[in-house]
Amino acid sequence: MPDLSVQSLTLSHFRSHKVLRLKVDARPVAIFGENGAGKTNILEALSLLSPGRGLRRATAEEIMRRPEQLGWKVHANLNSLGQSETIDTWAEPGHTRQVRINEKSATQVTLGRIVRVLWLVPSMDRLWIEGAEGRRRFLDRMTLSFEPGHADATLTYEKAMRERNRLLKDQVRDPHWYRALEQKMAETGAIIQQNRQAAIDALGQAQEQSETLFPAATLSLQHANDLPILTDSAELLAALSDNRPRDLAAGRTLVGPHRVDLNAIYATKNIAAKECSTGEQKALLVSLILANGRALIQSFGAAPLLLLDEVAAHLDDNRRAALYNEICALGGQAWMTGTEKRLFETLDDRAQYIKISDQGGESTMEMLQ
Amino acid sequence: MTQAPRDIEVLIDLMAKLPGLGPRSARRAVLHLVKKRGALLSPMADAMQTVAATARECVECGNIGTADTCAICSDPKRANGEICVVEDVADLWAMERAQVFQGRYHVLGGTLSALDAVGPDELRIPKLMSRIASDGISEVILALNATIDGQTTVHYIADQLENSGVRMTSLAQGVPIGGELDYLDDGTISAALKARKSL
Ligand SMILES: Nc1ncnc2c1ncn2[C@@H]1O[C@H](COP(=O)(O)OP(=O)(O)OP(=O)(O)O)[C@@H](O)[C@H]1O
Ligand SMILES: [Mg+2]
Ligand SMILES: [Zn+2]
After folding, report:
1. Beta-carbon neighbour count of residue B113 at 10 Å?
2. In this predicted structure, what is the pLDDT of residue A210?
3. Which of A79-83, A251-255, B36-40, B180-184 has the lowest mean pLDDT?
4. Quick check: B155 and A167 CB within 8 A?
5. Which atom of ligand 1 is nearest to the CA of A62?
6. Does the pLDDT at position B182 exceed 90?
7. Which domains are seen in chain B, by residue range?
8. CA–CA gap between residue A185 and residue A170 (Å, rounded)
9. Chain A: closest CA distance from residue B22 (Å)
10. Inter-chain contacts counted by CB atoms under 8 A, chains A and B
11. How many Å lie between the alpha carbon of A106 and the closest alpha carbon of chain B?
12. Are A150 and A51 in contact, with CB atoms under 8 Å apart?
């Protein structure tokens, strides 16, 4: 019995969707339709039920349906651990995104306590070979799913760091000002690192405890320039203050959790993720998302919502069937997209199906039995 | 929208610059004033002229008054060794309405923000330091907002006063009087829990 699932979803003026009304049960949802039909847009809307900018990292402005530009809204009814929750999130033109939970206005950070969401999108296919930023973001998304407070710590840390970077760029020398900011950074930076480490430990355990067709990934963290990773706020405070001269020369902060990268090794082969084949790299991501889901059943009490955009791509028939089996075994509500219905064949009646098409620049929807 | 005569449009535009008033509400407010010009508009214009001529910032604390030194700074009874640091004159007035604080104030006029080019000098922090050094201050109460910039400013002032021997305090954060737990955000609840006291 899954304990976290969307029951209904309404999108208004959300990208290609002028109005979209969906009612679904707790089973996985397979969305199919032609290129440009509006499938990923639905997943993006669901990703905004968690804090942040969602799976495209879009601004509120970009999401507004053009040409009208009237603002947008996502309304969802969810079942979360036996409670029913209503979430509204929207943006008006020229304003940032707002949130209401059960009719009360709330911060984005609060969303993380109710909805745990994880996603895989095609742009992440290159995650292991591109820059550290994407991997860090992936890590923080998984960490946030375990520890909703991670969003608060990250926001505060980044704000204080942007302030400090400005001082560095402007060559300000006032030591008290640096210290004030470094204290905030050290306090929150230590929490960020502790949360990340706890997430990695939880993922490691979840991978060990389960037999799966997907390859286990051995994860580790690495600071840029091989500097030590500091999880103690006093040590981080000292490092920030010691590094000030170097940071002044560089014009930005060179130590701290924002410089930490996520390393993965394909465990059974002992090969770094970036040296694995395209399909293997994807399998590692899938494996981590599934492990994350299993770990959340233990810590949160339910599997997360999984948003799997074009997940079938790069997976052979066996792996695809295995993925569906594992998703069903996990018991969570996975939202998957693909261009054709037959990609979901082996799911059969373990899933529900939605067809999306484009009708003259407007997405339309059809629920299939 | 039909235009009002030019002079009145000018007034509407000015009114719309007030906090909390948009173009629509400004239009409504001006229309109201014009209709009640004998009872409201003329006395208001006179009062505005007087305030414009006399209002000034207190050279000591930054409060707004009608003399170089405000009423609080010139009242010897308020020199009790306590100084309360606030972001804005509005905060000072709010504290005064509560009628519980007997000391003096220091209005910063904002919070530190490197990104908005607001540094210590823009915030009258040097003046605060010199007041603390010369006015026989024993306690500094940092009553700044619980925003990140507010807290950075608190750290900044605290860091400067570290070895001064002055006692530094900040306001407790938590459940407002009459507040219902169910309506508070997580941050407030967690701050209130941290600052809990035994009965
Ligand atoms: N702000 C917007 N206003 C109107 N339409 C938009 C907006 N942003 C994106 N679109 C349109 O939404 C359409 C559907 O996008 P979406 O990414 O959901 O397609 P998709 O079904 O996932 O396609 P694919 O199979 O190619 O991934 C695109 O044609 C795009 O032009
Ligand atoms: Mg797509
Ligand atoms: Zn004064």
Report:
1. 19
2. 85
3. B180-184
4. no
5. 1
6. no
7. 6-54 (1.10.8), 64-198 (3.40.1360.10)
8. 19
9. 15
10. 55
11. 7
12. no
CA distance A82 to A46: 20
Contacts of B122 in chain A (CB under 8 A): none
Nearest to A183 by CA among A163, A162, A160, A166: A160
With the most atoms of ligand 1 within 8 angstroms of its CB, the residue from A13, A14, A16, A357 to mutate is A16
Say which ligand is closest to the CA of B69.
3
Search chain B and give the residue with CA nearest A185: B152
Cα distances (Å, whole numbers) of residue B86 to A253, A255, B90, B91, B138: 30, 33, 9, 6, 17
Angle between the N-to-C axes of helices A278-299 and A175-208, in degrees from 0 to 180, rounded to the nearest 10: 90
Ligand 1 pocket, A41 CB below 6 A? yes
CB-nearest to A176 from B148, B149, B156 is B156
Q: Are A29 and A334 in contact (CB under 8 A)?
A: yes
Continuous segment of H or E residues that includes residue B189: helix B186-194
Measured CA to CA, the distance from residue A338 to residue A344 in angstroms comes to 8
Residue B115 with chain A: CB contacts under 8 Å: 162-163, 166
Q: Hey, are the CB atoms on A159 and B119 less than 8 Å from each other?
A: no
In chain A, which residues touch B (CB < 8 A)? 104, 106-107, 109-110, 113, 152, 156, 159-160, 162-164, 166-167, 170, 172, 174, 176-177, 179-181, 183-184
CB A185 within 8 A of CB A161: yes
Contact B114/A159, CB-based, under 8 Å? no
- pLDDT winner (highest mean) among A36-50, A198-212, B147-161: A36-50
Give the model confidence (pLDDT) of B86-99 as tens digits.
999 999 999 999 88
Tell me the backbone φ, ψ of residue B64, rounded to 5 degrees: -100, 130
| Closest approach atom of ligand 1 to CA A122 | 27
Q: The pTM is what?
A: 0.89
| Distance in angstroms (rounded) separating the CA atoms of residues A258 and A154 | 9
Complex ipTM value = 0.78
Separation in Å, CA B69 to CA A192, B62, B72, B184:
48, 9, 8, 40
